[in-house]
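The protein record quoted in full:
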Amino acid sequence: MAQTFDICIRGAGIVGTTLALLMARERLKVALLPAPGPKPAASADVRAYALNAASRQLLESLRSWPDAAHATPVKSMQVQGDQGGAVRFDAAAQGVEALAWIVDVPALEARLREAVRYQPQVEMVDAPVSAALTVVCEGRTSSTRDEFGVNFQVTPYGQHAIATRLHCEHPHGQTARQWFSPEGILAFLPLGDAGGNSVAVVWSVPQEQVAPLVALSPEEFAQKLQLASQDTLGTLELTAPRAAWPLQIALADRWCGPLAENGRNTRSWVLAGDAAHNVHPLAGQGLNLGLADAQALAAALHGRDYWRRVSDLRLLRRYERERKAALAPMGWATDGLQQLFSRPEAPLQALRNWGMKGFEWSGPLKNFVARQAMGIH
C-alpha cells in the first residue's frame, strides 16, 4: 500500500527540518525532500548564524540546540560608524543571559538531522510526493516557487557578502563587533568562551570589490580586514576558506495558494523562510525570521478546528498576513541602514553618525529595539 503524507516539505535545510519536527509533534505524517543543488562540504562550511532567544527556545523544544562548543553567547555588541558614531548593547543591562548566540551551521544541521532520524512521523524522500499541503523551504533560488507561478520581487543591493573565519591576536570577550562605512559593513562574530580568539566574519562589500578581495592571498586579505576593523583585535590570520554570495532584499507576492487535483482544490502550497523573503544580513536576523515562519505555520495548523484540513487556505492566508506584518519592520530597518551607509556624501555621513549617537542615548527606544532583535516581546 502506498505511503500517504499530510505534508510534503521541499527543502531540508534548517527551516524545513525544523518545520518537519514541529509538524511531527502534531502527529502529522511528513515527507522531507532535500532542495536541489549541491550542499557545501561540512569541512569547508564557514557559515555561522546569530540566533536570538526565541530561536533558541524553539530549537531546544525540539532537542536540536547545539552543545556549548558550537553556540557562543554574545554578552555585548559594539557598532561603529564612520565618523565617530557608536552604539553599544549589553546583555547584563538588558537582564538577559546573552543578546544572541553565534551558532555553527554544520553543528546545528547535524543536531536537526539526528532529531529527524528518531522521529517516525518524518520520512526523507528523494522526489516530491502527493500531500494535502506542500511547504516550500528551498531558499532564495527555489525552483518550486517558480513552478507555482509566484512573483519573487528581488531588489539587488549591488553588494556581496564575504564570509570566512579568523584567529585574532586579542580575545574577543564574547563581544560581537560591527563597522559601518561606505566601503562596506563588516561583522566579527565571537566563537568560543570569553578568552577565545576565533571569530566568524561577514563582510558586505560593493560587487566590484568582490573578485579582487577573493583573489588576495590569505595574508593580504587578513590585512584588509585588520584595517577595516580598525585594528580592534590586533593581528588577524585566516583559518578558513572564503565564501561569497550576492545580497538582495526580496519578497514573494503570494505565500500560499491552491493546487488543483481532479478539478477540485483539494491540496495547497505555502512558502516559508528564504523562499518567501530575503533581508540584508547586517542585523543577523535572516534565520531568526525563517524559524519564526516555521513556528507561526505550525501554530496556525495546531490551532485549526478539527474539521479543517492542513491545506485550508484560510489558515494559510492567516499565517501569511501574520508573517508579512512581522517581517515588514525588519525589512524596512535593514534596507534603510544599508541605503544610508552605502552613500559617501558628507551630509549623509554626518546625519547617520548623528543618528547613531542619538540612538545610543535614546533609553527606552534602544531597549525596545534590543528586545525586538532578541525575540523578546
About this structure: The first strand starts at residue 5 and ends at 10.
